[in-house]
Amino acid sequence: RTRLLSMIDTFYREACDMLVVEATPATRGRFLDAGVCIGLLDPNTLVTSDLHPGLMDNVSEDTKPGEMAKRSLDGLVAFLIYFFSYLAGWEAVRYLLVADADLLVAARLIVADRGMMGFSVMSLASVAAFEAALRLAAQVAKHSQPERLVSVWMSLSSQLQQVLSFLSVMQTQTQGMNIQMLLGGRSLPDPGKAWNLAASRPPHSNIADMPYEATRSLRMALLDTIRIFYLRALARLPRAELRTRYHRSMLMAGYCYGPFDPVSNIIVNMIWYDVMFAAPHPPVLDMIGPKSLTRLESRSFYGLASFLQTRYHDLSEHQLVQCLVASCAHLSVADPNFDVANKGRAQVPRKPTRLQPPQHGTPTLRLMQHFSVQST
Fold it and tell me: What is the pLDDT along the chain (376 residues), one digit of tens a residue?
């Protein structure tokens, strides 16, 4: 955290030195208080990009670089913790350090490190969470106008290349007017462009140089996914039969592993148990308690992990969880040899790999290729 604070503090001091005119202490204070290191561009650009008139109103004149660095770091961490479930604060700091305090680069690292192969920043859920996380970050960083800051960045999200062109020159009044013209265009938010643009900003460090496997947070995120499968399965069942018959077989054997998709597996396993081991007089229940559902989710997880561990002994627990996250707990996707009886020979197990060191001329922040085939 100390290294990260020092890095962000350097961004602010360099930005102060870039002011065209010799600023008074009060002017520098207003500049620092408005220029939070939170947004959709790289940190150096972010510090100066918040200087259009709408965001410079009612700002403090006595802010110091060190204080602003701490506020910005708190906001960056708040964004990542909100946007990624079960991410610890110190883990967020770690990713930010690897990403050189670049918010979207850090977010891409988390997506890659967690193996979130199906992640899309443009999905309805992601867009809403992204905007809410950005608002929280601005509030935690004590920005004078957090709502305005979020509105500006979401409006500019589809025009970031033009913004970069305007910001590539020294701060001028004309530059501010150009950005205001972009804001007046009322463009639709497009965080996907900002997400893709972050791929062109490879960090100087590589996450492989800071080895740590955040298995617990990854496992908790997987359990959340498994819970969604159970909620979907419950929603598909007839209410009367669920209360009188299926609740028992659901709790006893309604696991999400099997040859089909997880939701179908839950229903098939539940019906099979009800047919094979029917209770003579099952009680009528109105609900399945959250603790019972949590135990069922954990058992399903252990079943999924045990299946892969039994077949591929060289996979670590973290790699197993990565496989399950990347495949959305779908065994036939996670295991290339799942239906080996219908194949001429078994395929080579596909093992999840961590991010590789950056290569010249290629994007550093590609999604981690969890299923790269290993040669025998």
Answer: 888 999 888 887 777 666 544 455 555 555 555 568 888 888 877 766 554 444 444 445 455 657 888 999 999 999 999 999 999 999 999 999 999 999 999 999 999 888 888 889 999 999 999 999 999 999 999 988 899 889 888 888 887 877 776 666 555 444 555 555 555 556 678 899 999 999 888 776 555 555 677 889 999 999 999 999 999 999 999 999 999 889 999 999 999 999 999 999 999 999 999 999 988 887 888 888 899 999 999 999 999 999 999 999 999 998 899 899 989 999 989 998 887 644 544 454 444 444 333 333 222 222 233 333 233 3
Backbone φ, ψ for residue 373 (5° rounding): -75, 130
Burial 305-342 (b: 16+ CB within 10 A, else e): bebbbeebeebeebbbbbbbbbbbbbbebbbbbbeeee
Residues 155 and 184: their CA atoms lie apart, in Å, by 9
Q: Helix axis angle, 191-198 relative to 103-114, nearest 10°?
A: 80
Write down the residue that tokens 């609740």 correspond to: 247
> Which residue ranges make up each domain of the chain?
2-203, 215-372
* pTM for the model: 0.76
